[in-house]
Amino acid sequence: MNILEKETKLRELLSKIDEIDDCDAKKKLEEEVARYKQTMMKELSAWDNVLLARHSARPKTDDFVAMLTDDYIELKGDRLYQDDESIKGYLACIHGINVTIIGEQKGKNIEDQMRYNFGMAHPEGYRKALRLMKQAEKFHRPIITLIDTPGAYPGIEAEERGQGEAIARNLFEMSDLSVPVISIVIGEGGSGGALAIGVANEIYMLEHAVYSILSPEGYASILWKDASKAPYAASVMKLTSKDLLELGIIEGVIKEPIGGAHFDVEATVLEVKKLLVSRLRDLRKVSVGDLIQGRRNKYRNIGFFQRFNYDNLGGQKHEPFKD
Amino acid sequence: MNNWIKEEYQKRKTRTLKYHKARQKTKAMEADVPSGLYTKCPSCKSTIQIQAFVDNDFVCTVCHHPLRMRAIDRLNLIIDRNSFVEKGLGYITLNPLFQDGYEEKVAAYKEKTGLDEAYVYGYGEIHGMPCVVGVMDSFFMMGSMGSVVGEKVTKSFEYAMYKKLPMILFAASGGARMQEGIYSLMQMAKTSAAVKQHSDLGLLYISVLTHPTTGGVTASFAMLGDIILAEPDALIGFAGPRVIEQTIKQSLPEGFQKSEFLLKKGFVDKVVDRHELKKTLAKILRFH
Q: Where are the alpha helices (DSSP H) in B28-113?
């Protein structure tokens, strides 16, 4: 039974509580609900996390911005081609600190999903993000990016306008931004589309968010030619927040309520806000040089391999190659 | 511990020797095709004599379709004789996510290609002009970028920075290596940051896109060259054609994602014929 089925069952129980008037019976049911949450919904598999990360009711970028900030204004357009709705940019104020927020937007219903292209951005989206980051750099505003995308959009127009170049340019420029960058994976962090706004000083993940090189379906179909093995793929891909924290890719995990962020959006946003305010305060004290160097070092050190050092063995050195 | 190092050293030594042997018999090696006296061009399907085809810089003698080249053949083609010094040896690919069969797969490719990994770099000269040259080998697991390839690409830029030399990189890759998961993804950021540092020093970076350049490599260092050249008829793009077809549920137009298409769309400076490649690179280097 996956988490979505469990959730349906929980909702059934909850609706039953509302129907009952009798006090004792109500109490009993509430206890049952609490027990159900504790026993059934606490331990989640990797695939459950993927399902939760993609949950349509989960808070999206615009929800976070609306609840997180004291005041905000949305900025649009890449000044080159057109505006991409699947990446949103805001000028905002969090607890008295002015920031630029860039987030990938998904929809909650099918209409919104179509409008936001399921969170899959075209090159103009990434170029808009870059424009706003450069702007933030000019005005010394910290940057917060919210990652929630299945990946960059694979389509004809996207390729024509240079999807690869747009992402590469973002990685190139973000590595050298002179302001603090904090990334939070709020849902699905998929492949280059996520990384294109995710080169940060610090990366955090919501507890049930996932971050991976591509979707488990894609992974399964590439490696085993069978997309239906996605749940198994999820379990071996190390894409949950817990795994990535262990691997040292991310700096921290933000707690979610039992059952996922959509059960208590306010509590989740509050956790995010607390973290952001404290981290922003700290990072604002760091000098520009240390910020850039810190970000470079963070990525420079990611990699899992060994190097065999011939020089240490005192003997034969490698001879230069001759034709 | 000491024993282990010695054993490992012996193993590595024998492998390095094999590597050199493989390099020595380069001219008579197969390219895209099975070994033998004759081979078939994958583009026009005509039968060509291998020797004629190798002498023609791995370009089909009938339809002039450039075939995939191994890293070593590429170096022979581009770099002056006896000027290449390989750097960044001794990297060992590990299995960070404990994927079944990954180690065996890498070992098989090592055996087959005589390479450590899908990327080779070092010091070289083009018409006497020094540069750092890096070549991806698409015969090693489709040239996919894992931890080691990402590290070596980064190192090659760092070496170029250290020596204050221009960088020339031949990209040929299917993208990020799936088996290393998130580590492969992060190599994109790592390599791009290295390009940025190299660029900030005012050094030249020429990226040459060869067949095929897709996925995570396109979306990182391959597309960041000051000057981007491409070989004719090469597949260059972010998403693979099959993925796009599945997404939009229609077939793609002819010539989509080919070098000429990118040239038209403004993402490549010049499409250069393979016979002219060395001359063109030398010409660009002379300007800097």
A: 50-55, 71-78, 102-113
Domain with A270, as residue range(s), is 48-300
Q: Tell me if the bond preceding B212 is cis, omega within 30° of 0.
A: yes
The pLDDT tens digits for B101-156 are: 899 999 999 988 888 899 999 999 999 999 999 999 999 999 999 999 999 999 99
What is d(CA B10, CA A316) in angstroms, rounded to the nearest whole number? 11
Nearest to B187 among A164, A212, A303 (CB): A303
Residue A312 included in any domain: no
A positions 191-220 inside 8 Å of B (CB): 191-192, 195-196, 199, 211-214, 219
Instruction: Report the distance separating Cα B235 and Cα B240, nearest Å.
Output: 9
Is residue A318 one of the residues assigned to a domain? no
pTM, two decimal places: 0.88
Cα A66-A132-A83 angle, rounded to 5 deg: 80
Minimal Cα distance from A219: which residue of B? B178
Sign of CA dihedral B240, B242, B244, B247: negative
For residues A21 and A83, membership in a common domain is answered with no
Look at chain A and report how many structural domains it folds into: 2
CATH number belonging to domain B68-287: 3.90.226.10
Residue B206 pairs in a beta bridge with: B168, B227
User: What does the radius of gyration of chain B's CA atoms come to, in whole angstroms?
Assistant: 19
* pLDDT tens by residue, A178-192: 999 999 999 999 888
Residue B14 CB contacts under 8 Å (≥ 6 apart), including other chains: none
